[in-house]
Amino acid sequence: MDSGRSTGPARSPDRSTILVEAELARAIERLEITKVETLLELADRMELPNEVVEQLETAKTEMETGLDRAQELTAI
Question: Which of 52, 65, 69, 72 supports an S-S bond with 48, CB 3.0-4.6 Å?
């Protein structure tokens, strides 16, 4: 339902907004990496098939790449 109010044109985010979002992305990536590392340890203890471990390792590598990108954005 349209309220009839115009929010105006979308503004592009300023530098501080971009930095805050990048810092949040870094925090999220670090949490995800920690969780995947825990899953990798469990997979090892449970002697899960190699294909499971490989998928987790791939996911971890992708997350580390995301963390690297986020760190580049916040480098001053």
Answer: 52
